[in-house]
Amino acid sequence: MTTHAADTTPMGFGSMRRKEDARFLRGKGRYLDDIVLPGMLHAAILRSPHAHARIVSVDTSAAEAHPKVTAVITGETLTGLGLAWMPTLSHDVQAVLATDKVRFQGQEVAFVVAEDRYAARDALALIEVEYEPLPAVVDATRALDPDAPVIRDDLHKTDNHIFDWEAGDAAATDEVFATADVVAECDLLYPRCHPAPMETCGSIASMDPVSGKLTVYTTTQAPHAHRTVYALVAGIPEHKIQVIAPDIGGGFGNKVGIYPGYVCAVVGSIVTGRPVKWVEDRSENLMSTSFARDYHMHGEIAATKDGTLLGVRVKVLADHGAFNNTAQPSKMPAGLFHVFSGSYDLKAAHCAVTGVYTDKCPGGVAYACSFRITEAVYLIERLVDVLARDQGWDPAELRMRNLVRPEQFPYRTALGWEYDSGNYPQTLRKALDLAGYAELRREQAERRARGELMGIGVSFFTEAVGAGPRKHMDILGLGMADGAELRVHPTGKAVLRLSCMTQGQGHQTTFAQIVAEELGISPDDIEVVQGDTDQTPFGLGTYGSRSTPVSGAATAMVARKVRERARIVASAMLEVAPSDLEFAKGRFHVKGDPAASATMAEIAMAAHSDLELPEGVEGHLDATCVYNPPNLTYPCGAYVCVVDVDPGTGQVAVRRFVAVDDCGVRINPMIVEGQIHGGLADGIGMALMEVLAFDADGNHLGASFMDYLLPTALECPSWELGETVTPSPHHPIGAKGVGESATVGSPPAVVNAVLDAIGVRDADMPLTPAQVWRSMQGRPLRTDVAVT
Amino acid sequence: MQVPAQFEYERATSVDHAVALLQRYGPESRLLAGGHSLIPMMKLRIANPETLIDINGLDELGTIRLDRDEHGAQLCLGALVRHAELLASAVAGEHFPMFHDAERVIADPVVRNRGTIGGSLCQADPNEDLSAVFTALRAVAVVQGPDGRRLVPVREFHVGPYQTVVEDSEILVEVRVPVRPGGGSAYTKVERRAGDWAVAAAGAALWLDGGRVAEVGLGLTAVGADRFGAPRAEEFLRGAPATEESFAEAGRIAAEHCRPVADQRGPEDYKRHLAGELTVRSLRRAAARARGLEA
């Protein structure tokens, strides 16, 4: 089932075409690289060819002599400005330009500013850097070996350990395992992958030498957080910084943090007195910006002999790269990974996570992962399948039997989360029915008898999105709330200003529809403004599927504030008490007298007229709101994947994919389905082809789209979607967010299907033809290192 | 955005003009055909030619025609024939369906619209598909230089990875494929994803005489086969019964004599396995086509 938009615009929720698409589809989007400022210079970054090396010397004289070069900035330059290092989002520091050592291949070493892009790139070849190569730490499982080279001597560390972190009750979990009838365990790697947005990252910094105001155009999912960080890092007063996110060509978590190139562009503009544009190329994006995942997990699951799940225990080795710069709530070094008990009613669960440094690019939380829930869902959904296989149980039945039951909501998990709502068995049943699960199993048996390899994979996920209550979740001390400001103009047209930032999700449409639903103003008459910190209220931005749960709530709340203000104005117009008015279909009318009414447009005009208003009421229809969510929202979904595997070559064809999502109330079902389509394609990509591997010297083996494969339409079946709707009880409009659901939920369904087809218990992603063939031979590849 | 280093640009107006330009600019000049290998290499600064000589205007190199003379017929493909044109060519598909098998899985439509068959051969990438196809078909390359034209069998065209017999001041102008009745051909490729280079691929052209193999040509891609060939497997097959058993043995021989190298597309043992498996599959399909059992 796919929902198509009608030609008419709904006065509220419902499928409608995206307001932003008229400009995107005509090639009229305005992205960072489309912006040209008067006198603008262009920059390029010299990067390290080594994964680990001491910098002996940097000679920039030849580059500086290039006729078109205006400035060459090195780590030494930045040291003089106190900017050689910047704080990360995870209590660490990261080199802006390397001073002492380089710690991953592709690390930033020098920054050249020139009259044009070609000259900047040419001048990189004129910089002479002498390196003294050091042995690299590439294999995370060896990072804590006593003889491992120490990466972070800048921190005076004596090993590569970052943190140990635990969640859950270890003793209670051990007890459950000690008394369980059956236990299954499994090693699982969620390999390092990359969000790879279509638009790479970049920035234009323009320091006005007269006003002292810094304007930064940049590819950011969180413009307000960026502004505050610039103020903290560069010491520029925050009111003198304007961050502007133009149209963003995809983010997926890749555009949350601040990259060295952004800081260098600011320095470049200060040094030259002219605007400086820096835009990375594809290889730079893949080599140096936030990767995702890289979790080495050992999971165990305990159950009774009749198939009741009891507990899960997991140890994680987390590869954070050379600097700990994961973007996640401050108090949670493993993000929200500890939702790994998933959708099941367990007695106990425990995890122990150890973070380590390696000579690889920093990052970890990105690619639509909801702060590590991708890893959590992969863990539990693979473990359930491994257990089912070991015991000869049907994996769908095992799930159905152990799902949290509807009457248990709000449900407190063994790890302390309070799931808000859901009807998990209904959602799973719907997916199995849509897929024709029993019939598929019959077909599979017939095909197996003929030597054909067909596989069926099931996954059930619970997401936790909409971070978060400020008291639990912050980034660098900034609580994870979002603002909204709504102005209704005298003619009844409106402007909504948001702190979040669309990267292609359709915010201009969805958020206009929320206002429309609340006020009865057509979405076509509502302008949605985002991305410019001078024009929008403060808030933490768009990532972790938080826009609808947080900014969407802020929007509904601010619209309701305007509605109550409109009620007072209407009461003056209609000469009745406010409590005698009812609101319906975009107008207030007197109770019992529908003819005595005023539309929102009439009320807006009256609010600015000579109408006499009650004492103390100001004449306008404007309001602001900050929404601090009381809890996360918990979308869920059940996915069924059907694959065929070529026994002679190991090639996988995804034949069908059924996805039933419950994201609460759907504001624009067409956009929701579009989000799900994209996430399912992501899932096929991660399961079958995407990986950032490194060779023994730390060379990056995925630095182009010839090496880092993204799925195409040819790898995707025609998606079969379904829905259940369980509104969130604490969200003003019952919506839960959906942006990352499919990315979180689909990889285990694909992997479960492939392994089901080839009759193999476990093998790591990506399941390339070589990996499938090797797994069939009982010799699976290790996918995070060079294939040998 | 990746940007190339500075270079000079010349546009050739005839083959003779192109040869003259090659002579004038010397070994640091490169011909620009479809540009879908050369320009990405220039943007990555792996290739830094001083001069590009653009031959895209040489329409005389863009034709596909069937020539008949006293020695028989041959399919003549101009060096500037685009992949998409070969894919769309009925006459090429009618005589050698393996052209269409291969072209369907070469890169993507954008690359196929620009990339040329001559560029593919001259790039001499060991993972490139058409070199194996022309090897299987025993095609002949026509190379033009200051002293006129010379004919080079494709099986002698490649000197090594990224190296051919084409001299600095020469141009590949045409590829000729002898046409013989009673044959069938097929090309089979395993890729990690649509548009990727081959993990491995194999092509087979087969002519039957009753139940026996009268003549056979094999080509292997991306498995370290010497000049894309599998001559020992061909020798075994020639005169052998055209049966599953023969094909399996030919596949075994082909796999044994290639030298695949592990990379992120797959380990050595897998590629060797594919060399055999795909040889068998291509032979099977080529035989079915020769017998008129399959289109």
Q: How many angstroms separate the termini of chain B?
A: 45 Å
Instruction: Kindly report the spatial arrangement of strands forming the biggest sheet of chain B.
Output: 4-5-10-6-7
Biggest interface pair, counts: A-B, 35 and 27 residues
Approximate strand percentage of chain B = 25-35%
- Oligomeric state: heterodimer
Q: What is the percent of helical residues of chain B?
A: 25-40%
Number of domains of chain A: 3
Task: Supply the key terms.
A: 788 residues, alpha+beta, Aldehyde Oxidoreductase, domain 4, seven-stranded mixed beta sheet, five-stranded mixed beta sheet, 27% helix, B: 295 residues, five-stranded antiparallel beta sheet, 13 strands
SSE topology:
The complex is a heterodimer of chains A (788) and B (295).
Chain A: H1 21-25, E1 41-47, E2 53-59, H2 61-65, E3 69-74, H3 75-81, E4 85-87, E5 93-95, E6 101-102, E7 108-114, H4 117-124, E8 128-133, E9 161-168, H5 170-179, E10 182-190, E11 202-207, E12 214-218, H6 223-234, E13 241-244, H7 260-272, E14 276-279, H8 282-288, E15 291-292, E16 295-303, E17 309-319, E18 348-356, E19 363-364, H9 373-391, H10 395-402, E20 411-412, E21 418-419, H11 424-435, H12 437-449, E22 453-462, E23 474-475, E24 478-479, E25 482-488, E26 494-498, H13 507-519, E27 526-529, H14 547-574, E28 581-584, E29 587-590, E30 593-599, H15 600-607, E31 621-627, E32 636-645, E33 652-662, H16 669-688, E34 720-723, H17 741-758, H18 769-776
Parallel strand pairs in A: 1-14, 12-13, 15-19, 17-18, 26-27, 33-34
Antiparallel strand pairs in A: 1-7, 2-6, 2-8, 3-7, 4-5, 9-18, 10-16, 11-12, 11-14, 16-17, 20-21, 22-32, 23-24, 25-26, 25-31, 28-29, 29-30, 32-33
Helix pairs in contact in A: 9-17, 13-14, 14-15, 16-17
Chain B: E1 8-11, H1 15-25, E2 29-32, H2 38-43, E3 51-54, E4 64-69, E5 72-78, H3 83-88, H4 90-95, H5 97-104, H6 109-114, H7 117-123, H8 129-136, E6 140-145, E7 148-153, E8 158-160, E9 163-164, E10 171-179, E11 183-191, E12 198-209, E13 212-221, H9 231-237, H10 244-257, H11 268-290
Parallel strand pairs in B: 1-3, 2-3
Antiparallel strand pairs in B: 4-5, 5-10, 6-7, 6-10, 8-9, 11-12, 12-13
